[in-house]
Amino acid sequence: MKYxxxxxxxxxxxxxxxxLSARELAFYQTLKLPKRRTEWLGGRFAxxxxxLPQPGADAGRAEILPHEGGKPQVYVDNALYTGAFSITxxxxxxxxxxxxxxxxxxxxxxxxxxRINAWxxxxxxxxxxxxxxxxxxxxLWTKKEAVVKLLGTGLSLNSFDVRFVGDKISFYxxxxxxxxxxxxxxxxxxxxxxxxGFMLCVAWAR
Length: 206
Known about the structure:
The chain has 206 residues and is α+β, with helices and mostly antiparallel strands. The protein is built from 6 helices and 11 strands. The strands form 4 sheets. It has a 3-stranded antiparallel sheet with strand order 1-6-5, with helices on one face. It is globular.
């Protein structure tokens, strides 16, 4: 199995004290906005269910802690987790994925809905805008975001620097430099319509 994935309904989360370690809880309490707190908590709950699949496992055995490099670091029973992982959330859902087979992994979940043309023009290069259909643009968005997460750069990249024309990925500018620094791995994408009304993209490379 290339990767495992877990979805979590953000309206049905256990209390934070049952999900988080003491260090995680201290960071959680610094988050001021309720929406941000719920999404942050849900993403970690999803990831911990993958890391600790045994029924009744103490969620505190897994810790997902901030790291100065941007992407958090994951520890299981105080040992650094060396597998690939990624977290996403959108409109009441969170999802996480892990992989021991892949060196690189990125996932993105987005709700399919209508967005103004100015958003598409700002976010997608003219070559990419082969359709203005809501489903097409949402799928394109998830592909871009999943690949950016795979690269490990966070939101610092110019969205035009990761470009899709059909199924072909092209990199430009800073994204190209990052891709080359990773050894130019062969990136594969899997796109699905789950949960209903959403688009999920998983980007992975061995």
